[in-house]
Write a structure and sequence with these properties.
By secondary structure, the chain is of the alpha+beta class. Helix content is 52%, strand content 11%. The longest helix is centred in the middle third of the chain and has 35 residues. The structure holds ligand UCC and flavin-adenine dinucleotide (FAD).
């Protein structure tokens, strides 16, 4: 017999302390600003129904949908290019969770709500608010949804003359039945250029006897390649085999990715992109080798026609930016109650809370901006928009996208730091949030390209857009009667005046001022929205405090720079010399 002094097998002792993880509450119930904005802008009888749905969904996005989100993060898409026998199959493998997101999107009406118009001009606001709750828990399914929404809007804009497209695609894109529901891609970028689409597009379109076309080209970025259809740009060839250069040679085409038997429509998936983030999304390079397609714009109106889609996807981009900020702030806030350092929980350190308060102010400003633009979009959809609002909406869509994209990167980066080392650990899910935020400044138009789009909108409106901008701000400020907001009202008023003044002056290089100008438009407008929110009868001290904090910053960087003549030819030359100092090739 053997004498045992203790059990030979045991768990290793690794200490008794385990940090509690951050928890999320109902994301609608916890979002006081979202509730307040919707309540004050949507008629009561409609809001009571919307509120009920958002409250239910606010819980889903932190329970079953959030589990699927984490699964999308873990089980990334794969491409099986050839089968075991060498046959090219281009099989795209996506996770069960990703497919579930498709079904949930249909069932919850994440696209449908906007197009059913059951809630009149507030349908779009409702839809965007619901997507705002979904986006940070969506496993990036928000990306295909954005393009699907954009595609639905294009088809609606094309109108009756293409009823077959409505029957064939629109009814599916806006469907609530998962079996019917389609998603769309948006293929604009080619190897030569994603910003300069007019010079970058090499894809050619060959007319067929039946009136359809075959497309021949290489699409350099195709997000969500598992979509059912896509809108894309190509150059139709005339009977002599010639095409036009530039934007006047581009037309818009509709295509389906697969035929009735599920085979790819003469498309080869060349590779899946190896990306910094958005890894959940199957983004591919595609060879179009005779892809059957249908021209849906007039000749040469490709870019103008796809710009409807750009407007919608840029709105989704901003929605994703604002909701991503809200999510990291909510998580970091909860963590301050669970994490102890130097003997106290983090929430007891004013320095740490100051950091979070600054993030909160940014998040509120972005959220109000995005909600207000969604409200205007709803009015445009239902044709109740005034001319002034229309001008404002066109001018401010690129501003919204570019400014909130930048905010999201900064706030999410700060948010990761709020978790200390854990913010850098992959399986907390936190690092992915930063990687996914970074793309918001790149796709759907980079910051500079959108700043140039602001100039385009200004020029096209011949000054009317800026006048509308000023008048809308002025009218918001005039209705403010709370004296604790007086200083901020003055600051916003002055900034708006300075913007007008700057626009009326001749600048050597107006393009060089475009980014600072756009930032000025953004900060000043967001200031007005924050003040409006703070001036409501039921506004809270937090609304007032946040508005005043926002308005303390430099609202109009373009003017400060102008006094230094920073956009002159001489400064442009000095910038060039500085950037290329020491460059030897
Ligand atoms: O990145 C992509 C998909 C990513 C996945 C989706 C994510 C969605 C968010 C999800 C969140 C999770 S798709 C690729 C996106 N690509 C871009 O955004 C392109 C960026 N480049 C530009 O925006 C450029 O400014 C271009 C391509 C529009 C420039 O083209 P052109 O042809 O050189 O510009 P033109 O000649 O000035 O404009 C041609 C016409 C004009 O109309 P007309 O002739 O009537 O005057 C313009 O006024 O297009 C009109 N136009 C616009 N109209 C141009 N831009 C706009 C606009 N933004 N709104 C209205
Ligand atoms: P470039 O045009 O080469 O720009 C490079 C830099 O130059 C940028 O900083 C830009 O701001 C700057 N720049 C360019 N011109 C000017 C100028 N005149 N003045 C000042 N600055 C300038 N595209 C699609 O069509 N469909 C998709 O589904 C899609 N999915 C994507 C998914 C991901 C993850 C990513 C990262 C991209 C995706 N894209 C997609 C492509 C994306 O839209 C483009 O990458 C983007 O529009 C920029 O184009 P580019 O890469 O050609 O950059």
């Amino acid at each position: 017999r053997i004498v045992h002094t203790g059990m030979p097998f045991a768990h290793a002792k690794i200490g008794n302390f385990f940090q509690e993880k951050p928890e999320l509450g109902n994301q609608f119930v916890e979002d006081s600003l979202l509730q307040s904005y919707l309540k004050r802008n949507i008629p009561q009888e409609l809001y009571s129904k919307i509120q009920k749905d958002l409250k239910k969904f606010g819980q889903r996005v932190v329970t079953d949908i959030y589990s699927l989100h984490l699964q999308c993060d873990r089980e990334l898409p794969q491409l099986e290019q050839c089968d075991a026998w060498g046959n090219r199959v281009d099989k795209l493998i996506t996770s069960h969770a990703w497919k579930q997101m498709h079904d949930i999107s249909a069932e919850e009406g994440l696209i449908a709500i906007a197009y059913e118009r059951k809630f009149k001009e507030w349908s779009r606001l409702y839809q965007m608010a619901k997507n705002y709750l979904f986006s940070p828990s969506a496993g990036l399914y928000s990306c295909p949804l954005a393009m699907t929404d954009g595609a639905s809007s294009i088809i609606e804009a094309i109108g009756d003359k293409n009823d077959w497209l409505k029957q064939r695609a629109w009814l599916r894109l806006t469907n609530r039945d998962p079996k019917q529901f389609w998603t769309s891609g948006q293929w604009m970028t080619e190897r030569k250029g994603g910003s300069d689409v007019a010079r970058g597009t090499e894809t050619l379109a060959q007319l067929q006897p039946d009136g359809s076309y075959t497309l021949h080209g290489y699409k350099w970025f195709s997000s969500a390649t598992d979509a059912d259809m896509a809108f894309t740009l190509a150059r139709p060839l005339d009977k002599d085999g010639l095409s036009f250069n530039g934007t006047s040679g581009l037309s818009l085409f509709y295509l389906e990715i697969r035929d009735e038997s599920g085979n790819l429509n003469n498309i080869q998936i060349q590779k899946l992109k190896n990306k910094l983030g958005t890894k959940q999304v199957p983004t591919a390079e595609l060879l179009l080798d005779g892809t059957r397609a249908f021209k849906v714009s007039d000749d040469g109106r490709g870019v103008a026609s796809i710009s409807n889609m750009l407007t919608i996807t840029r709105m989704h981009n901003a929605m994703s930016a604002a909701s991503g900020m809200r999510r990291i702030v909510n998580m970091a806030r909860d963590y301050t109650t669970r994490r102890t350092a130097f003997g106290n929980v983090l929430k007891d350190y004013p320095l740490h809370i100051q950091t979070l308060a600054r993030m909160e102010v940014e998040t509120r400003a972005a959220t109000l901006f995005f909600l207000e633009m969604s409200r205007l979009l709803g009015k445009e959809d239902s044709e109740t928009i005034s001319n002034e609002e229309k001008q404002l909406f066109r001018l401010m869509t690129p501003v919204l996208k570019l400014y909130t994209g930048k905010q999201a990167v900064a706030v999410t980066s700060e948010g990761l730091e709020c978790f200390g080392g854990q913010g850098y650990i992959e399986d907390t899910g936190l690092p992915g949030m930063l990687r996914d935020a970074q793309v918001l400044t790149i796709w759907e138009g980079t910051t500079n390209i959108l700043s140039l789009d602001v100039l385009r909108a200004l020029n096209k409106s011949k000054g009317q857009a800026l006048k509308s901008y000023y008048d809308v701000i002025d009218s918001k400020l005039n209705s403010i009667n709370n004296e604790t907001l007086e200083v901020s009202v003055d600051r916003v008023q002055q900034a708006a005046g300075s913007i007008l003044k700057f626009a009326s002056q001749n600048t050597d290089n107006v393009e060089m001022a475009a980014r600072d100008f756009s930032y000025s438009l953004a900060r000043t407008y967001m200031g007005a929205l924050m003040l409006e929110q703070a001036n409501q009868v039921d506004s809270t001290p937090q609304d007032v405090y946040a508005a005043n904090r926002w308005c303390e910053q430099d609202l109009c960087p373009v003017i400060k720079h102008k006094s230094k003549d920073i956009y002159s030819k001489q400064i442009a030359d000095s910038n060039f010399q500085l950037v290329f100092d020491g460059y030897s090739r």
